[in-house]
Amino acid sequence: MTEIPPPGVPQSIDAVEQMLAAEGYVAARALSTVVFLALRLGRPLFLEGEAGVGKTEIAKVIARALGRRLIRLQCYEGLDAASAVAEWNFAAQMVAIRTAEAAGGADRDLLKTELFTEDFLIERPLLAAMRPQPGGPPVLLIDELDRTDEPFEAYLLEALSDFQVTIPELGTVRAPSPPIVILTSNRTREVHDALKRRCLYHWVDYPTAEREQQILTARCPEAQEALSREIVAFVQKLRTEDLFKKPGVAETIDWAKCLLALDVISLTPEVIADTLGAILKYQDDIQKLQGSAAKRLLDDIRKDLAPA
C-alpha cells in the first residue's frame, strides 16, 4: 500500500524541485529526491559535504516553503543534553526561594515541587522541536554535527528514534507529530553509523558549472550574464587548484555581490586580487593566487568561454 504524504508536503519529486526553486534554491535531482523521501516517510535527513555547498540553506528553504518554524541547534565541541534540550532557570528559582522564605512558613516539599515546573524551564532547541508549533511540525536543523562529541551523538539516538526527549524532573516529552529533521556535517570527523542508520543520507557536492550558473542567476539576478559566466567559470577553475579550502557556492554568491557593489562589469587580474578575500578564507590560498596565477586562470576561462 502506498504511503500518503503528510498534509502540505509536496506530492512528487518534481513538486519538491519547484518548491525549492521558488525559494531560490536550485537543487540537483538526487537532492530533490532524498528531500521528497525524507518529507514523505518522516525520516531525518543527513546531509554531508564541504562547507558552503548549501546544506544549511536547504533546511531554511524547506521551512520557508512549508510555512514551518525553523529551530536550529548549532553544534559545537562540548555540547551536552542540558544545552540542547532544556535548562533550569536557577536565578529565577533562587528568587522564588527567597521570596517564599521572606513570606515565612514556606513548605519545603511543596516549594521543591513548584520549583521544577515549566515556569522555571528554559527551553532549548530539541525540546522546542518536540512541542506543537503553529503551522505544523517545525523544521529542526542540527547543524555541523561533526563538531560535537560522540556522547552527544549517543544522546541524539533517543530523539531521532522515537522523537522524544527526557527531562529527569518532568519526565519524557514526545512529539505529537515528528518534526522535519535535517542534520548537516562538514565531515571533519566521521559520524557514528548508529546515528546514520536512522537517517536518509545524501552527499552534497560542488555543483556543475551549469547548475552553479543557475544558482547564481537565482540568488543574484542583477548580475549581467557575461559577468556571471566569468564568475562561475573562475570559481570552477579555482576548485581544481591545490587549495587548503576550496570555495563553496556561498562564496560564489558573496563574490558576485562584492563585484556588483564595486560596479565591476568584467573580471580583471587587478579586480580578482582586490576581492580574493570574498572567495578564499586562508592567507596561504590567497598568496597562491597573487600575481601571475590569477591572470593564468583568467586567461584559461576566457579561452573556454570564447565562441567556437
TrEMBL record:
Annotated SMART domains: AAA
Domain spans labelled AAA+ ATPase: 41-219
Pfam family name, one: AAA_5
Gene3D superfamilies per the UniProt record, alphabetical: P-loop containing nucleotide triphosphate hydrolases
One GO molecular-function entry: ATP binding
Coiled-coil segments on the chain, per record: none
PANTHER family: MAGNESIUM-CHELATASE SUBUNIT CHLD, MOXR FAMILY PROTEIN
Protein name stated in the entry: ATPase
Source organism of the structure: Gemmobacter lanyuensis
High-level lineage: Bacteria, Pseudomonadati, Pseudomonadota, Alphaproteobacteria, Rhodobacterales
